[in-house]
Amino acid sequence: MSIKKVKILEFAPTADEIWQIKRHKKDGYTDYNAQNGLVSLLDTNHEAKQRPQIRAVYAGGKATNVARVIDRLLPDNIQAEFELVTFLPPPKALMRNLNFGNSGIVPSTPTGIYTQCLQIENLTKIKPHFEVVDELAETGNMQTTRRCIEIVLEDAGTSLNFSPRMVWSQESAKAVLARLASFINEADMIIIAGAPPLWESSDNLLTPHNFYAKILDLTRDDCQVSIDVRGYYLHDCLIANRPPRFIFMNKDEFFEAIDTWKELDGKALNCTLIVHNKDGCWVWDKKMPDSDALFNDSIFFPAPKIEKVYSTIGAGDAMHAGFLREWIYSKCEEDQIRCSVVYSQAVSAISVSNDLATYGIDARAVDDMADSMKWR
Ligand SMILES: Nc1ncnc2c1ncn2[C@@H]1O[C@H](COP(=O)(O)OP(=O)(O)OP(=O)(O)O)[C@@H](O)[C@H]1O
Ligand SMILES: [Mg+2]
Q: Which of 110, 143, 250, 346 has the smallest count of CB within 10 Å of its CB?
């Protein structure tokens, strides 16, 4: 089947900011102890004021990261239609009357609008698609947009990351599913990445753990779904009759899901599982791992050698994006899975070996790296 419509789903609209602070006795942090991971900061009682330098601001969220990397790798003539679908809270009071002309921006909260602007700025070929859902209103404990701050300590080789949790209600989850049901039918491929928001379920019918399984239920039978998430959120998808077409997880997440592998016990499924870490990828195609001999039926693809690792931030997202880019446009007649895995490894290798991480991914560098891996 040729893939004509791809929808990437973002449930955590995020503005990511990277701030750098310097070791300074008034303006900044004072010390970093690598042994116990403690950072000392001077407080305001000591008349200190942190004066971070803002290094980067961009649209975040796992699905958005995947979209951004796919966007960089797409050929000029893309033929297929790619959309990044983001679910946003409604605007309050006068914000409802804002008019953004034909910019594509829709009224939301200030953070919701800010995130939309960042997405539009970051995407060239993928179309941002914004869905405002009234039940996502940020009242009470609800947190349906966020800003994540990464504080980089100059010369310390470490950083502090502040990522507020996304908190929904069961009603908002239901409303998002209902909204998805109105257009998910068009999609030939759905991409999901990262954990869903948290909410308390009153009746266990709709929980963060079965949310992705409910989304799968809404898709057309021939729609290919690709998911990169920890095992907790996959269990119900794998037990259901229609598993995702692709699953990505790192090796720690794979071990964490051991109970699911035991339950499935080597079952044949129309699903390819790709497990990765810095050493390479283990791939199970159409058959789930055998829990007695976990790696027995997998094919191993060693990671390409990298001279210097600069940043592993988003390496897994880059891998997910690379795989799907190649899967959709592959010229490999046979063994499309192998070509897509090798291409994905080239993408993550380029991502970790430059100081801009996923921002330094360049389609030509990826092709050269993939060629050196004799991928076709
Ligand atoms: N230290 C490293 N050295 C070489 N390659 C690396 C390193 N870290 C990551 N990679 C490459 O990136 C790929 C994905 O990395 P990893 O398995 O760490 O992702 P992850 O844990 O899912 O990351 P995230 O979800 O934060 O993006 C690896 O399979 C490998 O190809
Ligand atoms: Mg990951």
A: 110
Residue 104: left (phi > 0), alpha (psi -120 to 50), or beta?
left
CB within 5 A of ion ligand 2: which residues?
316
Query: Longest C-alpha distance within the chain, in Å?
Result: 67
The CA-to-CA distance between both ends of the chain, in Å, stands at 21
CATH code for the structural domain at 5-14+60-143+165-372: 3.40.1190.20
Q: Are the C-beta atoms of residues 315 and 351 closer than 8 Å to each other?
A: yes
Q: How far is Cα 303 from Cα 371, in angstroms, rounded to an integer?
A: 14
Where in the chain are the domains?
Answer: 5-14+60-143+165-372
Q: Would you call 10 helix, strand, or coil by DSSP?
A: strand
Q: Rounded to 5 degrees, what are φ and ψ at 282? A: -115, 130
Ligand 1 pocket: which of 150, 253, 254, 278 to mutate (most atoms <8 Å of CB)? 278
223-237 pLDDT tens trace = 999 999 999 899 999
